[in-house]
Structures are given as C-alpha cells and as structure tokens.
Specification:
The complex is a heterodimer of chains A (201) and B (277). Chain A is an alpha+beta fold. Chain A has helices at 2-11, 25-42, 44-47, 51-62, 68-76, 85-107, 172-200; strands spanning 114-122, 128-136, 142-151, 154-162, 165-166. Chain A has a 5-stranded antiparallel sheet. Chain A starts with a helix and ends with a helix. The relative contact order of chain A is 0.19. Residues 12-21 of chain A have low confidence and may be disordered. By secondary structure, chain B is mainly α. Chain B has one domain. Chain B has helices spanning 6-19, 32-37, 45-73, 76-100, 104-120, 128-131, 141-147, 166-177, 187-204, 206-215, 219-235, 259-264; strands spanning 155-158, 162-165. The longest helix of chain B has 29 residues, at 45-73. Chain B starts with 5 loop residues before the first helix and ends in a 13-residue tail after the last helix. Mean pLDDT of chain B is 81; it is low at 1-37 and 259-277. The chains are: A alpha+beta (201), B mainly alpha (277). Chains A and B meet through α1, α5, α6, β2 and β4 of A and α1, α2, α10, α11 and α12 of B.
Chain lengths: 201, 277
C-alpha cells in the first residue's frame, strides 16, 4: 500500500499550469496525469532524486492546482476553530513541507506506468467530485483518485487517494493525537521537528 | 503493492515498522492513551503498540538486513523471475476469491492470466499476461469475508505478521492454504519458500519504508489508519461510502492568539519532551 502511496502521490506532482478553464473534471485529471508521468520520466532532477529540483517542480506546477488551505483545515479537523491566525499560517507552512516530501519521494518511483481514468463520481451533497483512475504497470493496478472542488471555471484538488488511502485525511488522527497532548502549538512543534529531521536524511 | 494477501500486507507492515527501528516507536506521544480511547477501531492500542515495537526490532535486526543483502547480491533478472513465480501462485488464490465474491469477469480474466503465464511464461517465470493487458486483480479471503458482510472487527497487530483485523486474522489460514510456502511436501522446503516470500516482499518495500519514516508523525497511527482505509477500499472494490468531514473556509475567525498555548501544555515545548529521533 505504501509503495502505491509513493507512486501515486507523485502523480499529483506535475499538474502543469496549462490553462484548463471550464474543463470537465476527468479531462482536468487526464491532463495532469499525462504531464506528471512525462515529467517524472524526463526531468533530470527528479530522476536523480534531487530534492531541491523536485520541490521547485511541485511549487511551480502542482501548487496552483491545489487548494492547500482546505487541505490543512481538513487534516487539522475541528480543532482548526481554536487556532489563531498565526498558528494557522504556521500549520499550513509546515504541512506543506511535509506533503511536498511525500510527492518528492513518490516522484522518484515512477517508471513505465500508464494512467487510465475510470470514473467520475459526484460527492453527495456538495460541489465536489471524485475522479477515479488506475495506474497500470507491473503487478496490481494502483488506484489513484482525486477529490476536486469547483473553483470558478476551474477545479482545485483537495485530496488525493492512493491505493485506497486519502492522503490528507490520513493525517487527521495523527494530528488529533498531538493536539490532544500538546495543543496546536505542540502539533506545530512536532511538524517542524519532523520536517527538520527528514531534511537531514 | 504486489498483491493483497494478508500475509504480504502483514509483511509489508512489518517492513514498514522496521524502517525506522532506531527506537522510533519510542516516540509515542504522551497523550496517546487518550487518543486510544478516541479511536474506536483500535480498542487494544496499548497491546498493539507493544507488538508493533517488537516487530520493529525483529525487522531491524533480521528481515530488513537480509532483504537489503538479497537486493544487493541477487541480480535484478533473477529477482524479477522469483517475484513473477510467486505472483503467479498468488494469482490462483485471487482467482478463486474473485469467483467466491461473485465477480465472474474478473475471475475469468485472472484465470486467463494464470493460464497464460503458466503455459506461455515458462511456468510463471515471465509475465506475458501483463503485456496482453490481463491486469492483476488481487483478492484475499479477508476481502471475500468482507464482501459477504463480515465486519472487520478491531485492529490487531500480529507478532511478526504486522497489521491486521480480527476478520483478516481469521482469514489467514485460508490465505496460506494455497500460498507458495505451503505447497512443497517437505517441511524444510516449505520453510525455505516461505522465507523467500518474506524476503521478496520486504525487498520490494525498502524505499517505501524509508519514506514512511520521513512523513509519518507517529508511525503506529499512520500505518494503522492506512491499513484500515485500504482494506475498506478493497472490500468495496475501490468505491467505499464517501464521507469527508471538511472544515469550511468561512468556519469562523481565527481564535485570539493568547490563551491557546497555555490551555493544554505548560509550554509549546512540552510536546518536544518527546525526543525526536
């Protein structure tokens, strides 16, 4: 499952900034998938596992298509209401570093997979959809779903499901755990420590 | 992942646990007992965490080093062949489970896959079926029970085998019935093949476990939540009920800055008393 998490998460990576105004959700995802696979296969810094290059790629190509604030709120859960403005921006900054690391790790795993979009499902009671796809290569296909929110004429990614696991949601109980022991500041401290330690490795 | 059998899931996790083994698990946050009570799917968290630490140590001391040596010494071509042969045997069990779940088309496709690889792939050594777009769809008996309506029950960490649930544990003997390690007549050969299964599964996960180490705040919770989510997804064949508890953007203004830190911990660094690895 975790291998899939890697491979899949990386697909989120190179959503190119191409204009996708008023696109159907599945076309939006198709565009992204093709671009990501292409970038992962050809980009030299990605192939070499150069973190700086990968982070740069994520920042310029992925982030414009991701509603990062929504991701952070969702991971923090109801405790978000008790967070100050400063805490909120710190949480976002640290969580972003963490997720970029997930993408970076995943990017280095891509080799000769192809992506097949399978279905688009409406999320009950909202303006969201889930676009389902499969990454096919050797072995079991890897499920890769995107939860999208309509943002004007465009779509924003608010979570990615890799191999059955929603990435952002999967941080929720870990976050709750650290908030219950150390408060919001405890969580921020933990995230910062984690990012620092991983940065060295 | 290669396949979804409980065993390899378990191994995978055992592997995952191992990756950080430098006492990584010791960084259980102080409040984890409270968190345990708040996680209904994991009523035995205290016990599970102990087994988790044990598995971690075994992995660090034995399984991971052996898998690393295997990867470094055995040529890629040979490893791929071994992986294919094992996978072909797992596919037989997946085929049966597809039928048990009433999924005729996937069952037939998987059956074709096994026949193709066995007869045109030198007994499973090669994987021509994948070239022919006969996609591998792994199923195990735990998933079959889930499809029949058996609830997963509490989360369990099994010694050596890793993450499971009560249901998946009950399904394990059935899953092992047709597993490569159970097929040879001679006991010593059976142990040998089982060991090969373990090493093969672990070697596939070496880079994965390293990443988990970097991205999990608490590996125990991370792996538990991932395992449970993935199993639910598998039982529903990729379409479990959608329930997202998002926090809307206009949920209210940020709280006033002062009291938050004082509220729960003496100082923000209170949480930092948990030593970082």
């Amino acid at each position: 499952m975790l291998k899939q998490l890697l491979t899949g998460a990386l697909l989120l990576v190179s959503f190119t900034g191409a204009a996708l105004a008023d696109t159907a959700p599945d076309a939006f995802v198709r565009q992204i998938s093709n671009d990501v696979i292409g970038a992962a296969k050809t980009d030299k810094s990605v192939q070499a596992g150069d973190l700086h290059g990968i982070v740069n790629l994520v920042d310029t190509k992925v982030m414009p298509h991701v509603d990062f604030a929504a991701m952070t709120r969702s991971a923090v859960g109801p405790q978000w209401r008790g967070a100050s403005a400063e805490q909120r921006s710190k949480l976002q900054a640290e969580f972003k570093i963490l997720l970029v690391r997930v993408y970076a790790g995943a990017l280095t795993q891509i080799k000769d997979q192809t992506v097949e979009i399978t279905k688009t499902l409406p999320v009950p009671g909202g303006s969201q959809v889930v676009v389902q796809s499969e990454v096919r290569g050797k072995g079991d296909p890897i499920k890769l779903d995107y939860r999208l929110e309509k943002a004007g004429a465009d779509w924003k990614i608010i979570d990615v499901n890799v191999g059955g696991i929603w990435l952002v949601t999967s941080y929720r109980s870990q976050f709750a755990q650290f908030i219950s022991s150390g408060g919001i500041d405890g969580l921020i401290t933990k995230l910062a420590e984690q990012n620092k330690a991983a940065g060295k490795g | 992942m290669k396949r979804a059998s409980s065993l390899s899931l378990a191994l995978l996790t055992a592997a995952v646990l191992g990756a950080g083994g430098l006492g990584g698990c010791a960084s259980v946050p102080p409040g984890s007992d409270k968190a345990a009570a708040a996680t209904p799917a994991d009523p035995w968290e205290n016990w599970n965490r102990k087994v988790f630490v044990f598995n971690d140590k075994v992995d660090e001391a034995v399984i991971k080093p052996v898998a690393q040596a295997y990867r470094n010494v055995v040529p890629q071509l040979v490893r791929t062949g071994i992986d294919n042969v094992l996978g072909n045997i797992y596919d037989v069990w997946s085929t049966l489970n597809q039928f048990l779940q009433g999924k005729l088309q996937y069952g037939l496709e998987m059956g074709m896959r096994v026949l193709t690889n066995t007869f045109f792939g030198l007994g499973g050594l090669l994987d021509p079926a994948s070239e022919m777009h006969l996609v591998r769809r792994s199923e195990d008996f735990g998933q079959t029970l889930g499809t029949w309506g058996v609830a997963s029950g509490p989360y369990v960490v099994l010694p050596l085998l890793g993450p499971s649930t009560l249901r998946d544990t009950a399904a394990l003997p059935a899953d092992r019935w047709l597993a490569p390690g159970n097929l040879p007549d001679e006991t010593s050969v059976r142990y040998g093949v089982t060991a090969l299964e373990v090493i093969n599964a672990r070697a596939d996960l070496l880079s994965t476990t390293k990443l988990v180490d970097q991205i999990a705040l608490d590996r125990y919770s991370f792996i538990r939540d991932a395992y449970l989510a993935r199993r639910l997804d598998q039982v529903y064949d990729g379409a479990p009920p959608m329930k997202f508890d998002d926090i809307p953007a206009d949920d209210g203004p940020p709280a006033a800055a002062e009291p938050s830190a004082a509220a729960s911990a003496p100082t923000p660094s209170g949480a930092a008393s948990t030593p970082a690895r």
